[in-house]
Every structure is written in structure tokens, then in C-alpha cells.
Amino acid sequence: MAPTPPFLFSLRPYKGNTKAEAVIAHDANRHLLSTLEDGTPVLTISSCFRSRSGSGSTLATIGRSETDIHISYAWISRTQCSFEISLDSNAIMLYDRSHSQSTKLQGENAMPFEPGHHRQVVVQQGLNTVIGMGSDLILFELLWHHDPVETMSIVKNRECVPYGFGGHPYLTRTQPASPLSMEGRRRLRVRYVTIGRQPESRQFETVHKAVNVDSGKLMLVRILHGEPKVPSYDTLRREVDFLSNHGHLHIVEFIASQGWEGQCVEIFMGLNEATLGSLVKSGSCTEAVAVSAFDHMLQALDFLACNDIVHRDVKPENIFYLSLSNNKHLFRLGNPGLYSHTNTLSDTGTQMYMAPETLRGEEQTHKGDVWSLFVTVMWAQDVKDFRQNQSQLTLNEIREAVLYAASNEEGVSGYKEMAIINPEERASAAQMLVKCFGGKGLSTPRQNVPALPNSSAIAAATASAAVPVPALSAATTQITPSNREDLQDTDMQDTDVQGTDMQDTDMQDTDMQDTDMQATGMQATDMQATDISVAATRDRYLRSQPPRQAKASAKRAQSSGRERASDAWRVSKRSHQHLGKNAREARPA
Fold this sequence. Notes:
It is an enzyme of class 2 (transferase). About 40% of the residues lie in helices and about 15% in strands. The protein has 19 helices and 20 strands.
């Protein structure tokens, strides 16, 4: 009878190996015997087969003692080898349990046990399909009934596995007496095979899902192509090396990297379930989940900033997660440092999250990542239908929507310090962790986190920040926060000039009027009231200006005040002269 699901693989004698045929025909192995469609007898392992080892992570053992597949030859070890399940990925691995290390891998697709690694290796369709025991005395071929991804899924969902795999009774025996040093491990080349769908290809990179042949761990492999770029290439290598050696709970694991000396760099990263983007689109991103993602990303950005690393591409598709118990999630920031080498500003999907200074081509800092996280939160919460309408908005409109939401929308206005145009005035991730979460998860020493500006200063910075960000291809004059203040000063000067002209007109009208002292006194009183009002307005304006502009404005205001005082004295003098003339004319002859 031909094997059908849930069968995983069958052992068939390789090229008519007679000793392998004898093993299959042995009475002790009859419980695993099945027949292929062509009539060939094989030993088949099912996903629900219970190993005699008693371990939930063991599929089957082979040897001449109390094993699942019995081999009666004396030169075979009591436990020659075993098929184990990788607890990280549900991949199936072959372990060499023999004292003489006589289990071998052969064939065109073989990746044999490698010196320096534990004697374990992934076996799957198209990889390590010929196994020799006693060197090449017994040769079996592994026939797989599903592709690697399907096999992992079947193993993961098998009903007979108890929760919490127990330790294998032989596992401690095969571990080396002293663990391999980290220095030695880092020098070993990572061996892998790709699995799943076709790789994702971009201009400068290819992204694969892969399994580590020596550990069974699933990985994301990013292969960078082309000539090394200096200095960005050197910066990327330094950042990748740092993150490989200094992990963080909320940053995707950097396992290793290799190939920096050539034209094909391979960066190996941990694999996660999915992204925040897919979680939001599935409708599973509740308010509590969004707050959790915000908290975890602030911790990740603070860690990067503390170590002088700029992510440059914070967005929902670069935030990954793992599902925990009680409907909780562990969020991790992915791909830090990789954007500058693999992307260009033509990526409009990324542009909408970029800080204004980044779009203007200015130097990128960790403050730009903070702006991007604010936009990500807006997108996740769909503030004012932001997510639904994003494809219809220009970059200018997106920036205006961000500034409006920071000042007016209850859902994100509590984070308004993150959405300030001037990066010098924008909050850092550490400051937001202190404000929103009491500093929990800080990497920056608490004493090094400056206090946030007061609310009025933040409101002023946000209100004055509505500066258009021109299209990337447009050759237009940039309006920055500094020259915007100069423009405000110019407006104030124009207002002062207009006010002076109006006063001169009033004075001319006063000269033409034939009035008495009471009328003149009322005009003088009105002018004093006007001066007081103008002075109060000027004081409020000066208090709102930076020191340089305030000093210049004060000088202009002082000069204008002297002119108004001089004009008032001339009006008063003319009035008294006019009054004296009237008095002389009224005197009796």
C-alpha cells in the first residue's frame, strides 16, 4: 500500500544495497513496513509514530538495542542515529549517536556533518537524502512525501506530541564536554537551504526564507548584491556586527553575516510570524495591541539611538511580532541599518513615513526614526481615516495631516512631541519612554534623559511647523524653521510701518482741525491708550521670539516708540499754539 498522509518519509535501500534490504525485511521492523506503488518495501515514519525513546521531540531511533528500527549487525552502535524535531522550526534533523561517528551523508545534495558543529543536520526533500551507517555498509535513501514547508506544518500540528517536549535521553551524551566558544562559532560559515515561496527580489538585494542546516533554525536571509559602498557599506557592516553580538528583546535577532570581502553579502536574521501591517489589516490590532507595539518600538529605538544607530526605515512592514499567551504580542523592529544600502528615495511606500528633514536630503538622525514611529501609530490607529486615504495623499498633505493630528486628535495628541518639524525640538525615544511608560525599558541612563519642553513651547513649535515639503523632483526654495522666523520678523516690521503711517495721517488731521483744549486733551488721552496697547502687544511678541530676533525687534520697537513720542510732542505743541491764538483773538481790545 502506498504511503499517504500523515506519513513523513520512508527509508528505501539505496541502489539495491543488500544490507539495507535485510534491515527492512527484519521481523523487528515489521510495524513500520509499507510498500511503494512500484512494489518496493520500505520503512515509513508517520507524524504520529510514538518513539520508544519516550521523548516527544524524537520521531524514530535506529540501532541494535532498544530502538525503533532494529539493525542486528555488531558493528552498529546501540543507538546509531535518530530523527529529531527541531523545537525552533519543526524541521526534521538527523543526529549521529554513534561513538565512532560512523553515520555519514552521501549523494549530490549532501551537506555532511561539519567539524566544529554538533553532529546534527537537517534532512528534508532535496537535502541529505542518502544516509550511510557503518560508513557506507548500510545505505538508505530518504523518500519524502511532502515538501519542507508542508512537512514542518504536519510535524507542528501532530496530535500525539505532548505539550512541552521532554529532553531526549541520549541528548546529554552527545553534547561536547565543553561548549564551543563564541569566537569559534562566529568563524564557522553558516550553511543553509532556502524553503518556501520564491525569494523577494529588489534592486540591491534578494530576501529568502531559509533553514539553517546545522541547527534547524528558520531564518530570513538577506543577500546584498553589487560593489561595496563606502562609507555606507562600512557603516552597515559595523552596525550588523554590533547587533549580531548585542541583541535586544525588541529588535529582530541578527544571527550572523558573511561574505563582506566579496560582492555577495549574506545577513542572517531571525524569523517572526508576521508584521504589524498584516496584523492591522486583519483587524486584530486592538488599542491595547497598538499601545504595546508603541512601547516596544520606543524601547528598540532608544537602544539603537543609545548605540549611535539610525534605523532610517521605521514603518508597519518593518515591525514584526511573535504571539504570546493571553492574546499578547512581542513586537520586534526589523532591518535596522539596511535601508540606506538597499533602498532609494523613489520608494513611495517608505516616503510617507519619512521625517521632513529626511525628505529635504538633510542628515538623518535618530530623531527621524521618532517621527516615523509617530506616523506608524497614526496609520495603525487609522486616525481621521489616515490609513484608508493614504494612497490619495501627497507628501505635503501627509505632513499636514500628521501636524494636525499631533495637535488635535485625542488618540495621538499625547505623543505630539514626536511630530515637531525641527528635529532639534523633537522628542527622543528615551524622553517618550519616560513620559508614557515611566522610563521602563530605557537603554539610555535615566539621568541622561533631558526633560521635555513645557506644553506651551511644544504647542508653539507644532503650530509654527506647517512648512510645505516640496516634491522630491521640484527645484524650489526650501523654507526652514530658521528663515520662517525671519519672515515673521519682516511681517512685524511691515505692521509697525503701517501703524506709523496711520498715526501720521491722524496727526495731519489733528493739525487741520480747529478744536478747543478739551478736544485736544481727549486726543492725547486716546494716543496714550494706543501707545499702551501697542507696547503690550510688542512685549508679548518679544517674549515669544528667540534671543536674536527679539533683540532686533526690540531695537526697531524702541526706535518706533521714540518716533511716536516725538510726533505726540509736536501735536501737543501745535494744539497749545492754536489755543493761545484763539485766546489772543478773544481778548478785549
